[in-house]
Request: fold
Amino acid sequence: MATVSLQHIEKQYKGNPRKSVIDFNIEIQDGEFIVLVGPSGCGKSTTLRMIAGLEDITSGELFIDDKNCTHLAAKDRDIAMVFQNYALYGHMTIYQNMAFSLTLRKEKAEVIHEKVMEAAKILGLVEQLNKKPSQLSGGQRQRVAVGRAIVRSPKVFLFDEPLSNLDAQLRSSLRRELKLLHHRLGSTMIYVTHDQTEALTLADRIVVMSEAVVKQIGTSIEVYRDPDNIFVASFMGTPPMNFIRGHFEKGVLHANGIDIKLSENNVELLNKAGYEGKEIVFGVRPEHFKLGKRLKFNVEHVERLGAYSLLHGKLGEEAVIVKLQGWTDVEIGQTIDVDYDAKLVCFFDAETENRIR
Ligand code: ADP
Reply:
């Protein structure tokens, strides 16, 4: 059990002119499940590997339980890491694979047995202990990789895209298992993924990264409902938020081929923040549209997915996606009247792309 504190952590690889992680700050509470999410190359794995001690920290400080671990060797950090490629030893049984790190530490045989059996019970692997990795399914092998981490009773668990080699159904069931495991162990966990569904479903708090920088830290509902900038608003949520760029004047957003008369509370927000006569970006999620009178929407394509329907089309010349609950009778080529929930829309500065609050 441990707190983890990253203070102004930065990474610049030798030979790479650009920093891979810039000014990363977070105070992780004991028992928290933190997910680092962002597109490929944004610096997630580098951050995780610096916490593990597998990469040097270029500048800044790392504390685990108030102990300065910035330059501590990986083996002394009391951390266990589970990778995407769960390289198990093919010639060893599952039991031996799980016991391996304890054997290396020269733990007593009874202690090893107790820990392996406990982890195997938690992970539903008791029946598999005498088998070789090749006799197990992909999901079971990934469970063994998690088991190898559990037997070490580490202070902190680190996961680097552990589910990304598995098919969608298995990913979803292992996601549930990991969440239960976290509940059961109550350990601090830090998890890296590029998959927003994993982030939204697993995390106590999500760290959204882009191009080496932390763009927002918050709970799932905070990053979804209250994004700090266009990057977070577009990265979290499927389909992504619609963005309409335009000129704001006298309560109206003048965009490409359409004038949108904004609601009173939205106009007040923009006026107070000093945006009269300026460029802004109006953001509305597909699911926050509804049938109504405010706007004419030309439907160009319809996807009916059973529980909901996605209407692709244009408001003026602005391409947007509207998500309606259930099955829709709307056809391609139709023009329908839509409205949006004015309480749930977001506005952004057109230049900085930061949220207007
Ligand atoms: P992510 O995990 O978000 O996909 P990484 O942390 O792996 O991103 O990489 C972040 C950036 O650092 C990328 O631009 C990548 O090219 C660069 N990088 C990663 N490893 C090295 C390395 N060993 N040497 C130089 N640059 C690296």
In short: The longest strand covers residues 289-304. The mean pLDDT is 96. DSSP finds nine helices and 19 strands in the chain.
